[in-house]
User: Fold this.
Amino acid sequence: MRLPRATYHVFCFQYENDARQFYKALKQRLAKFGLEIAEDKTKIIKFGRFAGEEAEKFDFLGFTFITGKTRAGKFTVIKVTSQKKLKVKRQKVKRWLKENMHTPVDVMISGLNRKLKGHYNYYGLSHNSHRMNEFYYYVTQLSQEHNISFSLI
Assistant:
């Protein structure tokens, strides 16, 4: 069986002691197969319903996970686009527009639409509309700098 070079997981426990025991057991289990945990990317944090005010936020797969409450006052996990990923996305779109500034407008708009749809499909979650709108307005401003009419989009 072939394992990918890196796999990403989040394990959740109610009690910190359970998390520490699992972490220790996981390290031992992986060692049996000649694998190890990336210590610089691994940590135990307080997060969740019982963490209260001490809850930390963390980034995972392009999202920042934050504890919050619903309108009814119940616990929920809020997922928003991480600032780091949003910055990278902005740079990619800016670079793409510069590289394609002499492309016919209809072709450029079609390509830009694909990029926006892909972004919305991945990051389009509840509680993330603010960051999605932020990205849309950034792209709109960039396209206006490059004289692309958004009425065609």
Observations:
- The chain has two domains: 16-81, 83-152.
- Strands lie at 58-60, 63-69, 75-81.
- Residues 83-152 form one domain.
- The chain is about 45% helix and 10% strand.
